[in-house]
Amino acid sequence: MPDWLLYTGSRRPHDGVDRLPPPPPWRAFDGGPVLPSPEGGSGNAHQATTYRPSDDAVQQVNAALYLRRPLLVTGPPGTGKSTLAYAVAHELGLGPVLHWPITSRTTLRDGLYQYDPLTRLYAAGRDTSPADDEDIGRFIRLGPLGTALLPYRRPRVLLVDEIDKSDIDLPNDLLTIFEKGEYELPELSRRADPSAEVMTADGPGDRVTVTAGTVRCRAFPLVVLTSNGEREFPPAFLRRCVTVELRQPSGEAELAAIVREHLGPLADRSDDLVRRFLERAASGTLATDQLLNAVYLCRHADAEDRRALADRVMPNLAGPVDDD
Ligand SMILES: Nc1ncnc2c1ncn2[C@@H]1O[C@H](COP(=O)(O)OP(=O)(O)O)[C@@H](O)[C@H]1O
Ligand SMILES: [Mg+2]
Questions:
Q1: N or C terminus of the chain with fewer C-beta within 10 Å?
Q2: pLDDT the model gives residue 133
Q3: What's the average model confidence in pLDDT over 309-315?
Q4: Residue 246 burial by CB count (10 A; 0-12/13-18/19+): exposed, middle or buried?
Q5: Of the candidates 136, 253, 124, 120, the residue with the CA atom closest to the CA atom of residue 185
Q6: In the chain, pLDDT over 90 holds for what percent of residues?
Q7: Rounded to the nearest whole angstrom, what is the distance from the C-alpha of residue 294 to the centroid of ligand 1?
């Protein structure tokens, strides 16, 4: 394994991220005061500890970490795009993954923060404007993107999941934020006292102080943007990302290793299903987790039922279900 790789895909937690050199000068951020990185697992222990990344994925994760650039992960459904984020957070001890699932209705503002002025009015028990000196931070909750850009000592992992589902403007809006590494909360910055203790995406009990109505990062987060390829991204967007394309594992040994990783002894004598999966994948679109389901299910079925049962949980994802 080359020395420069911090994330290695070993699945064993270590402090390798402490060897991350300072950022290139054009990607240095000076937010503060520095916050300790939150403790705790990535939030998806089984997925994180069973993931076997490709060499290419390992290399590009490291490139994104060194260059302080978002990582755009493309590939068909079920190739492990989302899981990659959890696996990196687990191995490098980067704490809970900040998960931001994207739909066509998602706006940049959803990711940054929510401000709830109505609750604030109720809490104040009146229908006029609340006083400037009250605890406004109780009504501001940072979203996954807003939290990832807090000035943490170690990079947080932000999973912007299925960005290809977004409204057309979101990718470019996001890039602007990632270029600057900061955002403003006008509800705070226009107050006489623009500091407040706000809630974060790590839970209502987690509160951090935002000063001068602006959040600016210190360690740039590892941003994993996933895309099933439903949309092409503009060149300006691609230029600012590190990219990696994940493929369906195509070798019997590679698939068998993934099955064993997930199912341990339950994976014994599942070679016939791995071969059947490959046969079906050659003429259609299948995802690795369909094979995992088939192997699991067939452990509980009679020998004669195996193949029919497996075929039923491994339908072609790109077309109508076929039962051949
Ligand atoms: N390389 C891999 N190693 C281990 N498990 C994998 C791998 N690729 C996919 N999987 C498993 O397949 C399932 C789907 O992965 P997921 O990350 O949700 O895919 P995607 O986000 O690309 O649709 C998960 O259970 C994941 O653990
Ligand atoms: Mg996914």
A1: C
A2: 56
A3: 91
A4: buried
A5: 136
A6: 73
A7: 15
Q: Cis check for the bond before 33: say yes or no (omega within 30 of 0).
A: yes
Whether 105 and 28 have beta carbons less than 8 Å apart is answered as no
User: Between the CA of residue 53 and those of 42, 84, 139, 258, what are the distances in Å?
Assistant: 16, 7, 40, 10
Residues 148, 156: contact at Cβ < 8 Å?
yes
Residue 21 CA to residue 73 CA, distance in Å, equals 24
* Residue 252 pLDDT grade (very low, low, confident, very high; cuts 50, 70, 90): very high
φ and ψ of 177, to 5 deg: -65, -45
pTM of the model: 0.92
pLDDT at 153 over 80: yes
Atom of ligand 1 nearest to the CA of 77: 23
Task: Say if CB 207 and CB 199 are below 8 A apart.
Answer: yes
Atom 26 of ligand 1: nearest residue by CA position: 80
Q: Evaluate if residue 324 carries a pLDDT over 50.
A: no
Cβ-based neighbours of 86, under 8 Å, separated by 6 or more: 42, 43, 44, 47, 48, 51, 97, 157, 159
Residue whose token pair is 């229908």:
127
Ligand 1 lining (C-beta closer than 6 Å) = 47, 50-52, 75, 77-83, 226, 258, 261, 288-289
Distance from the CA of 121 to the center of ligand 1, in angstroms? 45
> To test ligand 1's pocket by mutation, which of 82, 83, 228, 290 has the most ligand atoms within 8 angstroms of CB?
83
Bridging pattern class, strands 71-74 and 242-245: parallel
What order of strands is seen across the sheet that includes strand 98-101? 98-101, 157-161, 222-227, 71-74, 242-245
Q: How confident is the model at residue 198 (pLDDT cuts 50, 70, 90)?
A: very high
CB-based burial, 172-197: b 16+ in 10 Å, e otherwise: eebbebbeebebbbebbeeeeebebe
Domains belonging to the chain, first-starting first, are 16-245 (3.40.50.300), 252-312 (no CATH)
The overall longest dimension of the chain from CA atoms, in Å, is: 75
Question: In sequence order, what are the residues at sequence separation of 6 or more whose Cβ sits closer than 8 angstroms to the Cβ of residue 75?
Answer: 81, 228, 229, 245, 246, 247
